[in-house]
Amino acid sequence: MSLLRQFSDDLTRLIAGVLPSVVALSDADSHSAGSGFLIDASGHVVTNYHVVAESEKTVRASLPGLPDQDAVILGLDQFTDLAVLRLETPPRDFVRFRDDPPRLGELCFAVGSPLGYLTESVSIGIVSGLARTINHQMTTRPIERCIQVDAAINPGNSGGPVFDADGLVIGIATAARGDADNVGFAVTAATARNVVPELIEHGRVVRASLGIGVAPRTVEVRGHEVPRQAVVKVSARAARSGFLMGDVILTIQGTDADERADLYDHLGRDSIGKPIDLELLRDGEIVRLTVTADAPPA
């Protein structure tokens, strides 16, 4: 058997194994919404926030070979563009998130319902970029650490899974560039693993807040130019904590603050009310500051 025939046969078996877990989602008027996928035997479905954000309490879910059924919206997280639904009658099939991070250049497969009616569609490509920050019209801040893929992602694919060669989910398709060919983006499995349990248990993700706004800057530290986060907005509470406009955050809890995501890593639910150690660059001098993170308004 040729290598190409072996690859083709392996691919068809992989897709046949994951396809029963991929869901087509539509609103109450049967207008196409997007895609999703089952992650456990309890019927929990992961999709994008922007797929279901304007729906009521339920959406219609279609699975290959099964009658349509309602999916209840359990939780939404705008910051990561993720949502969790639950099927009333869950099938036995589901897929799993991969533990290891995606690798640049590895094969990937996007499965979903492009254009809303081309259900059970598959596209193939590679992971063509890592650690992308993307803006989405439905989110109030950029989505961090997305992967870039050249597998075709079109309207209707949103919320669908991006699989690796073992049939494990490495990303959730969330956006594509309309001004480019084959430049799509997916929220990583690592982000979903952190967010999805919170959405199932609490319906939303509670994050700690420092009361500041930041923007990327390149600064010189100890003779080297490095990317860091500059304070561009200071609330009254943050001012009382000691922040000044123009401060550059060098480290948080001893970790370099190269990206906003590095700050977010230390501002989870468990950080609320806890002291957080920061190293700042202020007027050319290194300043150390300890602040207490609060919970933002719901």
UniProtKB/TrEMBL annotation:
SUPFAM superfamilies, per database record: PDZ domain-like (SSF50156), Trypsin-like serine proteases (SSF50494)
Source superkingdom: Bacteria
UniProt protein name: PDZ domain-containing protein
Keyword vocabulary terms for this entry: Hydrolase, Protease
One Pfam family this sequence matches: PDZ_2
PDZ domain segment(s): 212-291
Organism field: Actinocorallia longicatena
Source lineage: Bacteria, Bacillati, Actinomycetota, Actinomycetes, Streptosporangiales
